[in-house]
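Batch 3, record 17
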Amino acid sequence: MPDREVETRELAERHYAVEGGVTDIFILRDTENGVVEPDGNGAAQREPIRLLEVNENTVPTGIYPIQFAPAPTSGIHFSSVIVEITPEEFKKIQNDELHLPNGWEIGERIPNPQAARE
Amino acid sequence: MSTPDDWAKAYARQADADFKAWELYQKYPEAAAAECHKLLFLQMACEKLCKAYVLRAGVHKPDDVQTSHGFIQKHLPVIMRQEIANSRRFPRNPRPLLSKIRQLCGEIEILNPSMKRGNHRPDNCEYPWEVGKKVVSPLDHTFIVTQLLMMNVGITFLKLLRRAIDQNL
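Prediction for the assembled complex:
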């Protein structure tokens, strides 16, 4: 069975590798739909991987999640939802001036493996 | 009741039709009345594809996105990045490629006449605009997009765009 946590990290690490402007990637938890942690079991298997990505190269437009289909041939067996925001928008979320969709919360930060090497 | 997937698929089909028009003009350049018409189809295909991805996530409703613009510069680089990240032949140094794709997406976005970047970029592929005291027609304008599309980044971009559209049909 695909390992949700492993694939979440793999996807995030690929995004760090491809996009130089991505400074932080966080797991988004959907508390309303009962999926709190990427535990690899039950309902979590059907829920998409959700990532909040802070990107210095993007433009501010507010919260517009976009959803991708699974890509099993490249090792990603879950659909994924990406919310890309600017660093300024991230500050607004932290200050409660900009809001994520109902029930979505910012979870663990996935570190950039390349940053550790650089 | 219609689902986010139904809407996403419908937008992707429209994007596919627009992009097919672009592809036909590429194949039969004599059929295109002008370069700006070709670019109009490319811009529309990109916009509808971005909206398909937004609608699939189910957070925003069709009415929220239908008449609004500004999706290409924001979302198309993310879509292209996902295509690169999931590619079987992961490029050795993908960052410069994505950086150029981001520039290209920004140029495609302003082909829409409503996206003027605070009047700094009135050039668009539909309506004439004024520079100084001279009226410029899209028919006579040399678009940066056209130049970028002829470069390696443009060729890669068009392949990734076709793949992204196909995956949503």
